[in-house]
Amino acid sequence: MGLRWGRVLATAAMLAPSPVVAQRITELGIQATALVAEPGALVVGGYGAVRTSLRSRMSLAAGAGVSDGKATVRGEALAHFLLNPTRQHGAGLYVAGGLAVVEGPVDEGYIVLTLGVEGRPAAAAGWFVEAGVGGGARLAAGYRHRWLPPGWPD
To answer: Which pTM does this prediction carry?
Structure first.
């Protein structure tokens, strides 16, 4: 029975649509995250993401900062849904959710939910601002550089 399920999974993997590498958008940037909680925190660090489809993005962020006068580190893994992914001018909205892990005065894991606005989501670079929750009231802001495929957006 195990061999049959292995064949089913192998066949499903071959038939599943694979992202076209040339169409993938990669993003790298910096971000600052402030948490209004007890204790509060301010973290600055790096950000990386891959757009997995036109409207979705998977991101990782990690940074170091201060919480209650002591050193802290925070990592986040978020899935984003972009409402205006092909806008080259103006702002675009997105929602994101995922997990955060914090080590420092507080060693915890949190669920993160956020609403974001980013400048020029289909351009080579842009700013972003987010508000939400995840270990307290969460505010984040930063800058992203994007590697766009030729002819983006079509």
So the answer is: 0.83
